[in-house]
Design brief:
By secondary structure, this protein is an alpha/beta fold. It has one domain (8-303): Rossmann fold, CATH 3.40.50. 38% of the residues lie in helices and 16% in strands. It contains 13 helices and eight strands. The protein has helices at 8-17, 65-71, 98-112, 125-135, 158-163, 168-175, 178-186, 194-201, 211-218, 229-237, 260-269, 285-288, 290-303, and strands at 29-33, 36-43, 50-54, 76-80, 117-123, 140-148, 247-252, 274-278. Strands 1-2-4-3-5-6-7-8 form an eight-stranded mixed β-sheet, with helices on both faces. Helix 4 crosses helix 10 (229-237). The longest helix is centred in the middle third of the chain and has 15 residues, at 98-112.
Length: 311
């Protein structure tokens, strides 16, 4: 919902985004949830069919800035920041578990009453977005899946495993914002412009503001004893609900984290999906191949009818 111009959250959002307002020229919106407030972008006609963009770690809604600008002319585009990320609140005592991120996304979608959703997911947004979708499959009309997972399996890359080490990981990720800083180099194949790199890091300039980034890393469920293992396995078990939903898998093939093995698993679980690999793109495929990603999504939306109607 729109916030007043005197709301301290709005003032903070405007202060953070002012240096790159030409790249991210969107009015801030906030929704109160348990533990604080989550920020979201909401652009385009409210009566238009919505595109819901769900980011991962260590990114924020800035990831989808070009998609928002491109598609808000014809559709409503909603892009939230998860708790602790981007322009959302950064509480010290929140859980930062997968289940609670899904709860927040569900609350936002129900508050905005989004129907006939085209769901776009990336990174941890795969699990969070599909977690919401599993609860409300009747609201999801299309899927656009990019480098992500919504199932268990796959080895944790050493670069991420390093950030999970006790004390060392917290110092690197929270103390130095090392995870997000490294991503601006390691998650792309084409070097980011200085302005873009600074925008990626801007929400995490204050001390300890990268706690959500560290908690995401800690929340990767690698065994059945992990607190988020059961949540993720339930999400994976619900994927067959989307066998009849037009789906596009758009994949940066040079991603060292969500490797082509994850792409193969998505194709196994959603065998009907159209697949478009992007050979020269890394994890941040929206940065490496911006026009190709937009054109492919546009083509998918134009060709795939909305099979599900909602009431």
């Amino acid at each position: 919902m729109p916030a007043t111009q005197t709301d301290p959250r709005v003032l903070r959002a405007e202060r953070i985004t002012a240096p790159f307002a030409d790249l991210f020229p969107f009015e801030p919106h906030f929704l109160e949830v348990d533990g604080g407030a989550v920020h979201y972008v909401d652009e385009g006609a409210r009566e238009a069919d919505p595109i819901l963009c769900v980011h991962g770690n260590p990114s924020w809604s800035f990831l989808f800035r070009r998609l928002i600008l491109e598609f808000s002319e014809t559709q409503r585009v909603v892009a939230p920041d998860h708790m602790g990320c981007g322009l959302s609140d950064q509480p010290a005592d929140w859980s930062y578990r997968l289940q609670d991120h899904v709860d927040n996304l569900e609350r936002l979608v129900l508050e905005l009453d989004l129907q006939r959703i085209t769901l776009v997911v990336h990174d941890w947004g795969g699990a969070i977005g599909m977690g919401f979708a599993a609860r409300h499959p009747e609201r999801v009309a299309r899927l656009v899946i990019t480098n992500s997972a919504a199932f268990t399996g796959g080895a944790v890359p050493w670069r991420i495993a390093l950030c999970r080490l006790p004390l060392v990981g917290r110092a690197l990720v929270e103390g130095l914002n090392g995870f997000a800083r490294a991503a601006t180099v390691m998650a792309v194949e084409r070097p980011l412009r200085g302005e873009v790199k600074r925008a990626w890091l801007a929400p995490y300039a204050a001390p300890r503001s990268a706690r959500a980034t560290h908690r995401f890393v800690e929340d990767i469920p690698t065994n059945p004893q992990h607190p988020s293992w059961a949540t993720l396995t339930r999400i994976a078990a619900a994927l067959p609900l989307f066998d009849d939903v037009p789906s596009l898998i758009l994949w940066g093939m040079r991603d060292w984290c969500f490797t082509p093995e994850f792409l193969a698993e998505w194709k196994r679980r959603l065998p009907h999906a159209e697949c478009q690999p992007i050979d020269g793109a890394g994890h941040y495929l929206f940065e490496d191949a911006p026009q190709e990603t937009l054109d492919t999504i546009r083509d998918c939306l134009d060709r795939a009818p909305l099979l599900r109607s909602t009431s």
